Hints:
Elements (H helix, E strand, L loop, with lengths): L17 H8 L1 H15 L4 H8 L3 H8 L8 H6 L1 H16 L4 H19 L5 H5 L3
Helix pairs in contact: 2-4, 2-6, 3-4, 6-7
Amino acid sequence: MNIWDFAMDSVTGILTTPCELAVRKYVPSIRASLAIVLVKDYGLSIYRTAKLLKLTPAAVSNYVLGRRGKEYVDIILKDKELYNLVSKLAEQIISGNISEKEVSKHLCEICMSLRTRVEKGFTKESCTQTH
């Protein structure tokens, strides 16, 4: 099912934007991938990762253990470009040399790249036209 196929939010009945739906569908997997990279590739503890990502340690643990956000994690971590985007963001977060606004921009970039891989007919231009 394509995210553009939704015109109404089935829960509230309120019109929603493609980005709102993407946040529900893809961002949990992006967060999970980022947590996994920080813990497994960079050797950070669950607690340090939680502090850096402004999440609870329980949330990070659930991401790392595959209890939350697992739907697209394999795609993200096995795709060279997506993995590099996540790893680069992880490095910048660890260094502390990145603003929250820049983190948001990187998350959008990762989300758009993921969507081009999993949504038929999606292009990055499709997403940026809505902003």
